[in-house]
Structure formats: C-alpha cells, structure tokens
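Homework help thread (please don't just give me the answer)

Our assignment gives two proteins as sequence + structure token strings and asks us to describe the second one. The first is just a warm-up. Here they are:
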Amino acid sequence: MAITIKTDEDIQKMRVAGRLAAEVLEMIEPYVKAGVTTGELDRICHEHITVTQQAISACLGYHGFPKSVCISVNDVICHGIPSDDKVLKEGDIVNIDVTVIKDEFHGDTSKMFIVGKPTIQGERLCRITQESLYLALKMVKPGIRLRTIGKAIQQFVEGNDYSVVREYCGHGIGRVFHEEPHVLHYDADDNGVVLQKGMAFTIEPMVNAGDYRIRTMKDGWTVKTKDHGWSAQYEHTIVVTDNGCEIMTLRKEEEAHLSAVLVNE
C-alpha cells in the first residue's frame, strides 16, 4: 500500500488549502435558510472559491460531477447534486461538502447545517455524528492502528442507536484527491496500517438514523438511505504530527472545543 508521507512544504500547502475549504463553510452559513435552493448555495460557493479565493473546486468535473460542492439533504447520505429544484425548508438537515485545490494541494471538509428550528431527531443525529468525528480526531497519533479509529467510531455510533455507512470512507489526500489509505469508520481490516508522522487523510463518518444500507439514484451520484431515514456527516482533513494531529480544515467555531487536538509544530 503506497501511503505518501507529506514533507514540511507539502503540509504548509495543505494548511492553506484546508483553511480555504473551511472558510467556504464559514462563508455559506448565513445563506443556508428556508426558501433557498441548493443550486443557489452551490453558485455562491463556486464564486467564493474561484473568484474570492482564486482557487479551484476539486468536485466540479471530478469523474463528471456537475457542480462545485456536494449538498446532501435529510435522507441523502452523500454526493447530493445541487439543484434549483431543491428548496430548503424549516427543520431540514443539510451537509455541504467542499474540496478546494490551491497550489496543487487539496483541502476536503464538510459539516451539517440545520435550517431554522431543528427537530429533536435532526439535532441529535447531527450532534452524535460530529461527536463521533471528534472522538476519532482525539485518537490520532503515530503508532496506533488505523483500524482502532474505525472501531471506536462504530462503537460510539451504535451505542447511540445509529448506524455507520459502510460503502464510503475517509481517504488519504494531498496532491491527489483520493489517495491511500482507505479510512473506514467501522471495525474492518485495515491492511495493517499503522499511523506515522506526515500521513494526511480525511475522517468523515456518515451516520444513519436507521439502517446503514444505501441506494444510489439514477443520476449515478446521489446516495440515499435505503430505509428513507435521515443521515448526517462531518469531515476534516488532518495530518499526523509527533504526538497527535493537526486539523487542516478547522473552522473558527471549533477552535475552543478542539484545542486539545491541535498540535502545530
């Protein structure tokens, strides 16, 4: 398995790409409200990435994906295609997934937004999903097996009566959008991967309120829950440091909560 170890120069470039990706999620938050279409949110993100940031959307044209960001609402697990026909309504839960390329390096991140007043179900699902990511981030350090992270996420999620999607996982990242290793969010064979300083990858658990099984729509991209239950996802790009990890895509709203995880050398 060819896992690339990032150089100091690589990591500095990934910091820049990661900050830009996080900034898109910070920028778009005021626009996520009832009555807006996902197509309009995509256009706002696209303009911010290409004009304000002078960067590239990695999603646009990737294997034919037609938009700049993925926007997944309620029972859509991932890869939702923004559309002017999809209007957000009160209580919806919305994942916006952004990947920015700057100076050839990728920053990949996503978070959940709740439209207006949250439902009890929607708020809890989003909270547990975010907590599953945070507990994984706090485990990352050199010398631990990658598998232990997936096992911990699965135990936490299932302990809260939810399920973890199996078909999609985190991934190595750098100059290439999707590199080795595969970062599974459940207990499964990891091919013996042991974390080392300089490894860069995403952790991005997808958590379903009901069954973990999926169905893919006719557009070839949109993935929904098989049982029509809601799904949530949070994602960060990280690099392994001497004794923890650095979160490349940290948002300002998270800094206080995740300060214990940050190891900036």
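The one we have to describe:
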Amino acid sequence: MMSRKDFSHNVITFAVLGLALTSLSALADGGGAPSYVPGGSGIALPNLSLNFGNSGKPADTVAVLRILMMLTVLTLAPAILIMMTSFTRIVVVLSFLRQALGTQQMPPNQLIVGLSLFLSFFVMAPAFKEISSQSLEPYMAEKIDQKTAFDRAEKPLREFMFNQTREKDLELFLSLSKEAKPQTREDVPTYVLIPSFVVSELKTAFQIGFMIYLPFLVIDMVVATVLMAMGMMMLPPTAIALPFKLLLFVLVDGWDLVVGSLVKSFG
C-alpha cells in the first residue's frame, strides 16, 4: 500500500508540473502564435479528444488513471500558486497597505490580487524558466521520463521555499510529522516544507505590514489629538487623516517603495 509520504510526494509532483504548465505561458520568451490560414475564416485551432475504450492491458488502465489524476491536480493550480510561490507575502502586504491607508475598497480586491499575481510571476520567473528548460521542454521532446521531469520541476520550487523558510518553522513541522531528523535539504519531505514555508511567509508579511502601519498610525494620532484640542469631538478623525495619508504616500512615491521592497525581500 502506498504510504502517506509517497502519496503526498506524487500529488505534489503532479501539482508542480501542472503549475509550470499553467504559468510558463505568461513567461514564454518566443512562444509560437496560432497560425492563420490564408483565405480561411480565421485561426486554425487544434483538435482535442479524450476517448475511453475497452482494453485488456493493465498498462493502458494505469496510463488513463495518470492522465485523470493530472487533470484533477491541474484544478488545484490556484492553490498551488498561493502556497508555493511569493503570492502569499505580496497579497498580505498589499492588503495591509490598503488597511493602513484607510481607503476602504480602494484599490479593489481584484486589482490587489491581479497585481500580486503578476508580481509573483516576476519574482518566480527564474524558477519557472529553470522548470521549463530542465523539465518541461526535455519531457515534451521525450528526452526524459515522467518521474525525472517531476523531480526536476520540483527542485527549483523547493530551493525557493527553503531560502524563504525559517529554521524554527521547519523544525516545528518536522517534529509534528514525526519524521527522522534530516541531514540535508534533500531529506526534507515536500509536504513538510510547504506548510513551513507558508507560515514563514505569513510571519514576514505581518512584520512588513507592521512597518507600513507605523507612519500612518502617527498621522491618525496627530489628527485625533488636534481635533480633540480644538473641541471637534463629533468630527471623525479618519475623514480628516485620509487626505494627509494619501498626500504622504504620494510624496514619498509609496508604490515604488512598497513594491520595490517586496521584490527585494525575496533576494
């Protein structure tokens, strides 16, 4: 029977290759555009069909099950993008920034998620390119088998997660999993590394969010103190502080500072 560790490894490796397939289209340097047929009605699209027939060979059944498993795991690509890349830190920090500014729903959620997504592609571009050159392209050219492609695709993401994971968090999940103490990074199971990475990202994001909050908190306190001194108890301080916070953010070129600091924090 397949152990929990082996099952987790298989699911994660399928997920890694699925993430590469869905992400690399946005990073392709010279991807071929769909061909246009002269004199035709439009763009020529390839045909795709999936048929299930009776077969007495166990190997055919295994191959079909693998395809179904991979198609199922591809539906988890958004969760994989959130859990195994820089997306978590970026979206949390940008949400903190909006809360600190006090602009309610500006920027809207769609814009924050979209900006976080493209910043994640930017940060993860070296890893995705390595997955493409070392795993995806050789596998499509039938130079390596499926298992080798999965192992090669998993390596850049594991390296990225290790570089951003605190040892304390990794030790916590290793102790919870009751795994033997690893001697090298290669001995750490991926299903242990991922939650350790996510917890570390949340800690880092909250630390950055605290630093972002401080200057805007000072403005709120100053405005509230001035209003109290003037006897304007019924005037909400947030309504007066908002223009000053926006002015400060614009004067210091806040978007460049926040985005630049976020990207550099992954270096």
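TA reply:
I won't write it for you, but here's a hint about the kind of observation we're looking for: Residues 190-229 form the longest helix (40 residues).
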